[in-house]
Amino acid sequence: MLAAFWPLAFSISWISHFLFNDSLEQDIVSKIRAIEFSPEFFNYVFIIVVVTPIVEEFCFRKILYRDLKKYVGIFGSAFITSLIFAWIHNNLYSFAVLFILGFLLVYAYEKHGSIVYPILVHAMFNFIMIVFIKL
Asked: pLDDT tens-digit profile of 22-38?
């Protein structure tokens, strides 16, 4: 599922790069880019790859999406939660990619009926992004 997402993510990221090149990158991206492989780096990796996906997926998919779905349906809830998910990351450059990722995470949640799958997809996405940042 995540593999099918990458071509779209790269395309959107490439377009965003030209449209919003003046936007600052997220603070955490700057920190990851700047620090060497050290205990501090691995603490960041643990937080980004393990803690953040668990917290965000419980908040966005398990609670907010599930509750909104009762009132606005699957698509409406997916749209709203994906919009908020992208917005809280506070970065115009990555907004579109995170918005689409939000839909993918809803899809994983709906398809499998478990919060575990979006947590795993989110964790893999964050890990892959760290690898790209450090290249």
From this structure: 666 778 888 888 898 98
